[in-house]
Amino acid sequence: LASFFFFFLLLFAMRLSEEEEEGGVRSDAIKRLLAVFGMDDPPAGVTHGRKQPPQYMLDLYNTVADVDGVTKDPYLLEGNTVRSFFDKLHSEQVEFRFNLSTVARTEKILTAELHLFKLRPQATLMFSRHHFCQVSVYQLLDTIKTNNTQERKLLSSRLIPVHSNGWEVFTITQAVRSWTVDEGSNLGLHVVVRTLGGTQMDLKLIRFASGRNHHQSKQPMLVLFTDDGRRRSTTLESTVTAILPQSPMAAQAPPRSARSLDQAAAWADEEGTSMPCKRLPLYVDFEEIGWSGWIVSPRGYNAYYCKGSCPFPLGQNMRPTNHATVQSIINALKLIRSVETPCCVPDKLFSINLLYFDDDENVVLKQYNDMVAGSCGCH
Ligand SMILES: *[C@@H]1O[C@H](CO)[C@@H](O)[C@H](O)[C@H]1NC(C)=O
Ligand SMILES: *[C@@H]1O[C@H](CO)[C@@H](O)[C@H](O)[C@H]1NC(C)=O
């Protein structure tokens, strides 16, 4: 009986380690998928209920990407990242501060914009003799650090109709660049409104929505257009070599169990090898992966994959390279034993866009190259 019991224990232990191994593979695989998306860990997501992403970011996403996240026009964005930040100061004055700690040191700031929502003047003040006002955005400076008497630096200034309402955008790229170099120098921004004559105007007349008193959809916002330097490879070769050397998984991976080898063989028999090379759907479901808490859009995307044989003779519909054509001929002539038929692989790749909440609950739009197989060919 003891040996019988021991046998069961052994069986149980084997089963446990198998499950553990599967769990290990899964977490390793998800870590590697995160690396494809340029992250070490999944962002915390939104902690306090469902936060509404800024309309500006949703509109931007819908402009650059289709419903599946695939880039509509690769030349629309200059860089590959757009970050939005909400004001952290919530001041009664027209002062703003944005926490840029989530911007990577390696990220190149291309353009930075301050988005302010101008409210309609209050009714009692409608009959003002002013039709235009001068709105100026200043960067607040640390007088001790810069050894300077200057307390602020003018970044942007514009005439705005007094009676208008809606978003006003000011370019403040230089200030944001200096903040990312020295985080401590970020004392924020100050907005001054003057009459055309140069006297300061009543803040009751010209009002901008603040994070304190107004709806979330009108909150002051900083929008950064940046490039993280990942967009180099558009050719297949460089992508493949970029991914392969840094995947120790292949080396570490335990030998596949006999069961999974049998399974693979069964699948191969089932599908046969006669199907010619073609593109098949491969849906990557972010909810299934457990990422729906931080990804706003898309819910998933069709990456497609390539499958099938590349038999002699290769027709033009197989999109063969000259090299593949020659290889297929050598294979057919059986001139050299080890030369196989060419491989069915993606020969055109598209980028996708992700709209997501980062660690600080800022909404980020990022473009990732070479994520969707556009077509397959024999190579
Ligand atoms: C900015 O945010 C980070 C992460 O949330 C935090 O650690 C840091 O203290 C913040 N900086 C300021 C100046 O508030
Ligand atoms: C600040 O400026 C004063 C006078 O212009 C100069 O004597 C002093 O060395 C400067 N200090 C620093 C830290 O640059």
TrEMBL record:
Entries under InterPro entries matching the protein: Cystine-knot_cytokine (IPR029034), TGF-b_C (IPR001839), TGF-b_propeptide (IPR001111), TGF-beta-rel (IPR015615), TGFb_CS (IPR017948)
Family statement: Belongs to the TGF-beta family.
Pfam families tied to this protein: TGF_beta, TGFb_propeptide
PANTHER family: ANTI-DORSALIZING MORPHOTIC PROTEIN (PTHR11848:SF241), TGF-BETA FAMILY (PTHR11848)
Compartments in which it is found: Secreted
Gene Ontology MF annotations: cytokine activity; growth factor activity
Ranges where the TGF-beta family profile domain occurs: 256-379
Taxon lineage: Eukaryota, Metazoa, Chordata, Craniata, Vertebrata
Protein name: Anti-dorsalizing morphogenic protein
GO biological process: tube morphogenesis
Keywords linked to the UniProt accession: Disulfide bond, Glycoprotein, Growth factor, Secreted, Signal
Secretion signal span: 1-19
UniProt organism field: Hippocampus comes
TM regions (residue ranges): none
GO cellular component, one term: extracellular space
Record keyword Endoplasmic reticulum present: no
Chief place of localization: secreted
